Every structure is written in structure tokens, then in C-alpha cells.
Amino acid sequence: MLDTALSWKHRATYYTCRQKVQQVQEALMKGKDDLSLCPYCVECTQYTQAQKKVKFICGHGYHLHCINRWFQDHPNSVGSCPVCEGEKSSRGDAPRDEAQTFILHSLHRRFPTIITQECIESWEGCNAELWLTVLKCPRYSSLFSKVFTRE
Ligand SMILES: [Zn+2]
Ligand SMILES: [Zn+2]
């Protein structure tokens, strides 16, 4: 019974992730320089009037608490837009889409078991429109064995 509950939770996380990826796709397709998403937490910035927002000259907007957290972790880049000045791809070849790459890393931080490091590497190079078609629910077995040994 415990396993059923965990299996359900695993699938629920997957569906949340899938919805989030879809939301990201839509935002990226609408406009890359004026996203309606906060690239750090991948949540909408438009309908949260209560939360303070920060917008850089480049057009990228963040929640105030998100940008503060980013600056805490990256003290060297305080004052500059994380998407434009932050993590650059390790591969220095063709110019890539910084916003897309940055959001991909944010998705990985939120859903490490679904958007894996391997996903980042293969998704980085392809259009965000394709992400949903390659998104798969990972096997649940590892979770099961972990729970099993604990009991
Ligand atoms: Zn945010
Ligand atoms: Zn920017």
C-alpha cells in the first residue's frame, strides 16, 4: 500500500513537471526577451501582484526574493541579470539561447529526478518546442528499493 502511494506521488511529480515544461514552452514562444516567467523559480511573474519584482534593462524579470537568493549564491554577479551574465554553457561553440539554458537549469533544480543532468545536456541544443515530446516519466524502481531497505 505504501508503494502504491509513493508510486502515485512519483507520477504526480511527473505531471507537475510536465505542466511546468509546457508553461515554459509557451512563455519562450511568446517572447524570449520579455518572459512572463521568473527564470529562477519558473513561476509566473504576472499574476503575483503581492510579490515584488525586479526587471533588468534586457527585459528579463525576476521575483525580488529570487534575485536576492541568486545574488547570495553568486556574489560576483550582483547587479547583473543572471540569464545574461550568469551561468554560461560549458561548451563555447555556437551562440545558444541563454534564457532557455538558464530555465533548463532551474527546472533541473526543481525536478532533479525527472529533468536530469543528461536531459539538460541533450535539451540545451534543441528547441524548447521539442522538450515535451522527449520528456519521459523515469522509472520508479529506485524509489521503491530505497523505501524497501528502510523498513
Ligand atoms: Zn521567482
Ligand atoms: Zn537578461
TrEMBL record:
Name under which the protein is recorded: Rnf12-b protein
Gene: rnf12-b
Entry keyword Zinc: yes
Native organism taxonomy: Eukaryota, Sar, Alveolata, Dinophyceae, Suessiales
Record GO terms (molecular function): zinc ion binding
Transmembrane segments: none
Record keywords, A-Z: Metal-binding, Zinc, Zinc-finger
SUPFAM superfamilies the record matches: RING/U-box
Species of origin: Symbiodinium natans
Residue ranges of every copy of the RING-type domain listed in the record: 38-85
PROSITE patterns, sorted: ZF_RING_2
